[in-house]
Design brief:
- The protein is an alpha/beta fold.
- It has a single domain (about 35-200), classed as Ribonuclease H-like superfamily/Ribonuclease H (Nucleotidyltransferase, domain 5).
- Helix content is about 45%, strand content about 20%.
- It has helices at about 1-25, 30, 85-105, 115-125, 135-145, 160-170, 185-200; strands spanning about 45-55, 60-65, 70-80, 110-115, 150-155, 180.
- Helix 3 (about 85-105) packs parallel to helix 5 and helix 6 packs antiparallel against helix 7 (about 185-200).
Length: about 200
Amino acid sequence: MVNQFQYAVRMHADEWKYQLKKQSENQPSMIDQRQWVRPPTNVVKINMDAAFHDESKAGGWGAICRDSSADVHFAAAGPIEVATDALHTETLPLSYAVQVAEQLGVGRVIFETDCSNLHRALVSSDYDLAHIGTIISDLKFRLHMNFIDASVVYAPRICKKPAHELAALGVGVAQGDHAMWTTSYPSSVTRLVTGDLAVS
């Protein structure tokens, strides 16, 4: 119990230092990006997001995969049944998105998240001893072993509106299940994808 408390205090202190350092550095790719950006040729980008309703205590995840022509390869959504905190809630959509990408045989992929802590967890060892350390370690292994090339990058939430909409739809999917679209996407998602194209 004492070790867990000390770890939590250290992680909060480290997070403050990390955020202050990030604000002081010149990082235009994290600060200036205001829209979805197409991935390189022969690479797909998967945006994912989580939604959580405080009133109902229900959560959902969503993911959408697009290529350099902005064509949608697939969209998926499902419920989040149990999440211990915000970082756990944001980690689950990535885990589900990786699972779908593995099943569909995606080779070169960029996973885009708006959770800076999740990005940090995957590019460092800072969260290996956290309560979600096992999930993080599993994701690192799968990203390395099951794709030709895979990376997880940070982008602001404004850059992934379709994924956010899918996460909201995921709240309504039956527990233990998920919805998948490869054609005929939900109209609300199609409108947001079209909006991305208008400004990209």
